[in-house]
TrEMBL record:
The keyword Signal applies. Keywords: Signal. InterPro entries: HmuY (IPR025921). CDD domains: HmuY. Residues 1-21 form the signal peptide. This is HmuY protein.
Amino acid sequence: MNTVRSLFVFLAFSACISACKQDDPPLPDNLVQFDASEQGFESDKTETEVKLTLTRSAETATAITIDLAPSGIAYGTQFTTDPAATNNSLTVTIPAGSSTGSFKVIKAANLFLSGTEAINFTIKSAASPVLVGTKTTAALKFSSIVSTGSQLKLNGGEGGSSAVNSVFVDFSNNAQTSVARNSWDLGFYGGADFRVIINGTTGASAKELTKTDLSQVTAADTVGLRNILILSQGTGSFDNVDDVEGDLTKTVIKTISATDAENKVYIINPGTSGTAAKAWYKVRVVRKGTGYTLQYAQIAETTFKTLDVTKDANLNFSYVSFEKGLTEVEPAKTNWDIEWTLATYKAALSATASVPYTYADFVFINHLGGVEAAEVLTSTVTYDAYVEANITTTTFKKERNVIGSNWRTSAGPNGVAAGVKSDRFYVIKDAVGNVYKLKFLNYTSSDGGVRGYPNIEFKLVKKV
């Protein structure tokens, strides 16, 4: 009897599972569209990228066909594309597992333009099961633009709360630039001072030694440094990371002195690459004319490499990877306003003590490039109601952490769900004085987003 009853229950359960599966709602359509409907192509650039986004990651490699209509400029003689176009049509393949794609527009050498030239792009078709979305056209103008606003899905990449990319956003140009967080280890300041930063987006840390000769530094010099140079729950020290507020006078690597003997060796823990810890390095930086010379090697190596780094006044920092040498990271300092990333900040151990801590979904402003920002509560004025007249009563700040993690909540006890805070938005004044209002739309599954791909909206409030 028990066997019969058990069989009946199993069959009923199976029938329920089958029915429930049939009743599960289908996934929404996966749509492809342009990242932005308009972007500029500044005269000092030789190439630019036009980006495409999917609603979610492609299940298989997906071909997207795009038509182009040049105006005042000719394909093949004045510009080309990568991939190449045939009969004013090109195909971009979005890889399986990716939700973004792009193609490049490349100017011919020694090209002089009036600034009125443009290319209009139209998404013609997408391979099944992807469908064409609503933002099907995009205009690339061969001049600087001041965007009136847009919505962007930031390409933080895979990894969820440990998303692999930092994303730089330029509001006036409707542009975002994604760079792998682990693609660099040191940043060399391009301003008047001689400063070097470590990579706070990977949880890097550093320790100054008394030695000035890399060949005299061995694994023995790392004894006792594990709890100091590994940032984790309750470990690490603010003495071994760059100032979390972004003060360049408080970098862990001291000002590079014009007197070589004053420039000590540092042991660098570069942090993590994905989930894997990176090899520790010993480094020393000295001045070379108006630039820098980096000496570096892994801890156990008996010889070291040298690399000259020239200051570039167009950049906040010039970047170096221990593995690849000089590398490009952030855009020119006039070409970005905010950076969304994982960042080393601080967490409280008690009411009076805190430690360095790596925060996901952290937002910096380009404070070194002259950007300012303000947080505005909707109890004062709503996002939609905020207009140019409100600017005079808005208190802008120059601190890079004005936004920080204040725009979101994390999942917590008593059923607190992660999500965007709807009681606030931000006002950004870019380096030339254009003012934008910014709100975050979603960033995690609890608020309708995907972790690592936050959606934002920004609108022009005042144009210079």
